[in-house]
Write the structure tokens for this entry.
Amino acid sequence: MSEQKISWEKFHETPVIGILRGYPPDVILEMIPVYLDSGYHTVEITMNSPSATNTISTIAKRYPELNIGAGTVCNKADLRLALDAGAQFIVMPVINDEVIAICVDNDIPVFPGAYTPTEIYRAWHLGASAVKVFPASQLGPTYIKEVLAPLNDIRLLPTGGVSAKNIGSYFEAGAVGVGMGSSLFDNKLMEEKDWRTLHNHLKEIKDRIVFR
């Protein structure tokens, strides 16, 4: 388990979790300095990526200034592997009571995935640090605003479908952060290792964040 804790201050400075799924470890490691230089501080390596645990471990040691988490954690086995690799926070596509309880008991930030108001409320009361509203592409910013009308104490983190075009709307609706994958890490730019263009792309998205 990582001794390094997530920096909430850095997360709130740029409240975006960059989701890296399926990229080779060497590409990720080469990209991380570009990500940091663009003003981002939080990244998630999904557990169904190649050599995910090795990538998490390497990043945690090489870039201690970065918040590094594990995503697509669905069960205790995934959780143990992620924490042993040095993950500082856990992101889930589902609600698993046991995984959430372990994270809460060990003061590890956890973001379970939920879709309906009932699921969102349940995840929050199980101890979620924020609830990952997934897939947000099917719901949109209006849904976030409508859910927060009666459930205004819950922190929501929409993921899936967040883009440069709508990121501002999600924050205006009340989201405390967002998760972004391919819309943040453009696949073509990643494959070509066009870091200069990716840097500009990342900066453009960051500039569209609206702080309430």
